[in-house]
Amino acid sequence: MTDKFMARTKKVGVGNFMWGTLAALMAITSLSTDIYLPAMPQMMKDLQGDIELTITGFLVGFSIGQLFWGPISDRYGRKIPMTIGLLLFILGSIGCALSSTIVEIVLFRVFQAFGACVGPMLSRAMVRDTLEKTKAAEMLSTLMTLMAIAPIIGPLIGGQLLKFTTWHSIFSLLALIGFLMLVASIRLPETLPNKKRNGTSLWEAFKKYKILFRKRDFMVYTLCVTFYYVTVYAFVAGSPLVYINFFGLSPEDYGWLFAVNIVGIATLSFINRYLVRRYTLDNLLKTSTSISMLAGLLLITMAYTGFGGLWSIAISVFFVLSMNGVIAACSTASALDKVPDMAGAGSALLGALQYGSGIVSTLLLAFFGNGTGNPWIMSWIMAIFTMLATTMAFLPKRRSKI
Question: Where is the Major facilitator superfamily (MFS) profile domain (predicted)?
Fold first, then answer.
């Protein structure tokens, strides 16, 4: 962190509060998808449709939203789009709670996500505003450790709520959480001073995406985390039917088994804080993607043979997902380091592709799945895309000509 920014945050007493709030804002995405996972089988019965499309809709809004808010945040600062985005998230959550058809809830999920995307996108940009490459990777690992609380408690809370009420209350709870985050975000400092803001028109700002697509190293790191997140969302969208419908787990037990994976993510994210001080980000990225690929190959083997049943699937998935914190932190820090003058747009494009990759997962699951939750479909998606992520990590990097 720059000495000037450190002094300012300490003076106003918002240093730890800022990082804690940014971690919570990054967690909004996970919470918005994970908290209602135990309810997906019941929602499929109530709404009479492919419930995976609720995740697809969220990811569509999340991806488009980041592309919209990124240049705006470079032009007007981080706090204005953050406030507007959280307001949209609250309204979208209320709409989901009041939905009675699959079409209604998918549309409101798009609206909800259009606002939710400001949390992780602007958190990454604010970290890059204040920290250099290695420190940014260290801080991102710290934030991911803290944000891991959300996907741990999300399915547990959702499963417990279903004991006493309907799935509609889950989205009402998200609206309340959004309001609390809005109140907390008001105290955050503006990390992009006027002199560093993009003075060009918004139209010119949006043209930066064309430049970013042509920056080879930025895109290699971005595609690495993008392919990996196809794997992540294949599990997020596919595991409720696999664990609950196919293997017969209760929604409450599903929440506990899901939480085990997040413990692995949090642990590796915490360890990564120290690894980035000793090893290069590229070497950490190569190692973590390779481990996830080997676990993905084990997963597809277990799913095909049926050997070990539920536990062989769960253990394989654990090792695939535990690499999340390392891969996401190292890829993000390395990618944004290539575009320091376009941190907002770069973070937006990276986030749009990263989380938009889940659209691929959910559509593949909806197209090839038949509602039974056969683990084979989820497994081959995860195996293929861990291999693609590893390929990106091992591609040689070179200086962009632009």
Answer: 1-401
Q: pLDDT digits over 361-396, tens only?
A: 888 887 887 666 788 899 999 999 999 999 999 998
Q: Tell whether 400 is covered by a domain.
A: no
Domain count, the chain: 1
| Tokens of residue 397, six digits | 């990097």
Can you spell out the DSSP letters for 309-365? Answer: HHHHHHHHHHHHHTTHHHHHHHHHHHHHHT-GGGHHHHHHHHHHHHHHHHHHHHHHH
Domain membership of residue 340 (yes or no) is yes
Predicted TM-score (pTM) of the model is 0.73
Taking CB atoms within 8 Å and a gap of at least 24, the contacts of 7-15 are 8/189, 9/189, 12/189, 14/187, 14/188, 14/189
Contact 85, 115 (CB under 8 A): yes
Token pair of 117 as six digits: 């995307």
Q: Which residue has the higher pLDDT, 84 or 337?
A: 84
Q: Provide the pLDDT for residue 8.
A: 47
* Under 8 Å between Cβ of 328 and 30: no
Q: Give the residue among 62, 63, 58 at the shortest CA–CA distance from 109.
A: 58
Task: Assign residue 48 a region (left: φ > 0; alpha: ψ between -120 and 50; beta: otherwise).
Answer: left
One-letter amino acid identity for 128?
R
Q: Is the pLDDT of residue 11 over 70?
A: no
Q: Which of 206, 240, 270, 194 is nearest to 54 (CA)?
A: 240
Confidence label for 39 from pLDDT (cuts 50, 70 and 90): confident
CATH code for the domain of 258: 1.20.1250.20
At 147, is the pLDDT very low, low, confident or very high (cuts 50, 70, 90)? Answer: low
